[in-house]
What does this fold into?
Amino acid sequence: MMLTVSWLSSFKSADKLEALGLPDEPVRLNGFIHITTDNKIKLFCPNPEFGQNVMTSLPMMLAEELDVDWKNVTVEMGPHDPAKLGAQFTGGSNSVRMYWKPLREAGAAARQMLRQAAAQSWNVAESEVTTKAGVLSHASGKSAAYGEMASKAAALPVPKEFKLKKPKEFTIVSNSKKNVEIKKITSGKPLFGMDYSVDGMLIAMIQHPPAFGMKLKSFDAAEALKMPGIKEVFTLKLFDDNFEQGIFDTRSFNELLVIVGSSTWQVMNARKKLVVNWQPTGGQKDRMGGRGPSRELTLPAGLESTATQMQQMKEYAAKPAQQLRKDGDPETAFANAAQVIERTYYGPFLAHNCMEPMNFFAHVTEEKALLAGPLQAPGFSEASVAKLLNLPADKIEIQMTRMGGGFGRRAYGHYLYEAALISRKVKAPVKLIYTREDDMTYGIYRPMYTATYRAALDANKNLVAFHVKGGGIPEHPIHANRFPAGAVDNYLAEGWQIPSNITIGAFRAPRSNFNAAAEQSFLDEVAEAAGKDPIEFRLALLRRAKENPVGKNNEYEPDRYAGVLELVRKKSGWGSADNGKYSRGVAAYFCHNSYAAHVVDMVTREGQPYVERVFSAMDCGIVINPDAATNMVQGAVIDGIGNAFYGELTLKEGVAQQQNFYNYRMIRINEAPKIIQVHFVKNELDPTGLGEPPFPPVFGAVANALYKMKGKRYYNQPFKDERQEAI
It folds into this structure.
């Protein structure tokens, strides 16, 4: 029998299974829970997994309220079924936060149904039936495993009210559990999109233009078609001119030159034999929907270069900009200041470089479509692929594989659409594969940013005014209502942006990853000018924001922000003479509803700066799986250090100059810190984000430690001595 719990706990009965009376079939108490008569309990994870461990943490919340023994639980990735499993979107550090209440309610509802079934079977009051570790019990001595009552429970109406556990009652949540897929990962079992295979599957690759601002003119595939295993070479249009793109739709190159063959190696080699002529594009127009009203977006023509982009940014920075927030009278405060500090910061385009290159499987017929691969936002992609294929959504099946990294890159479903259109064209199952070079030169980069910060100090070295003016290609990075907004009487935030044909997208902690780097570096410099300890300087501002906040719409909670700074100060031994051998840098930031602070300890190793130790403090509410949460923060720290020192993608006449890891530098294993201590603020607040919040302040902490080591400030990312010119 089947009963379903609809999304956001608006519960309703569903149709009974046609397999009524087959006791060996699993009973689906709701969209997340299957229980067999021999008491095998299977929990379904709704959200795609790309290493943040939601495959473990989300079922832990479900199992907690269901009251089962974790060792008796198996976990599977749920199918794409938003009606039963919700939004199923992994991004914005929302997985745990979004599912915290619905999953617990689903587990609690199922447990109550099991108790009702036992009470009816034993002819006792429901209130007298207790549960523990998947067993129902009564004071009379009667007991039953969940599996014995599952079928009867599934026939009951879903309760509208039920009691959730208090945090002090948790036995699974807040207790570390091993990754449920660890054996599969370490033994090389098929898990990822690159592993997906079916009989008769063909391999497809796309030859895209070598430069942004170019398109296909003509091609000759005669030699490629002579190569072993090659089936077809053809062109394909991704979006028609009148196609309205959805929230995560994007395209760098709309006309695709596709080569299809029997194996990856054959297709790669044959692609080299294509003779292709390219030509400049005119200005391109996209019809965009999904975020506000439908609108037209113009992508300018031209072959862009980093050098000219930097000059453009310098010119735009000197012009009037859009006012995002203003408190007090900053113009007068700056005019009357005893000292004004002004600094400009720069951050380049960054490539996501997921370890698993982009890929997707598609088998499309006239009647239906099967799609499988690594994808962060299946619901958003399904709507667009349904329009592209002219198929109803119920004829489209999306299977979500484990992702070899995401970081925002796999929220954009263009590679799924490409695979689907190719499969429909060749009338066969197809796996589309990007090489590393394809992926790194296709776009969807972290935007290029700059920001100028100004601070005004009075004669007593007090901060009396703060001004940030930031811009970027093609968007600005400024979060106008974040710290130190609310802590300074006179505050001004402005933003500007330059249109571009370089395709950008969400990159771990969008905008915050640059904003935090620049802001936290600048605050250290202001603290030094004021003659104050950098942590105490920030804490004093936060006390002001708490006791007498300035303005409205301040996004952060001063107490929680101060809490991570105080915790990291204590755990790192900040100010202790015992740490004298280290050049120490600190930074803290709020984003995705969570608070992070780091102290970076840097030494010189073989003549180069090396981050030997990091102390991290996090406030993300209740921590579901402490070991996994610690791993998440440690990974963010390493990712941040690597990007701070090395991350950079540059362009020359539209051509990405970095095309693989030989010239797009990534942090190496031996460059990771020896110690990363992670500490969590203990509270009983509902969980907030964790995948992204630890990442942004790492940049600022590294920059501040570098200053202590080298005696000079670093304003441009990546932090390299050979290129420190201001933009």
Q: What stands out?
A: The radius of gyration is 28 Å.
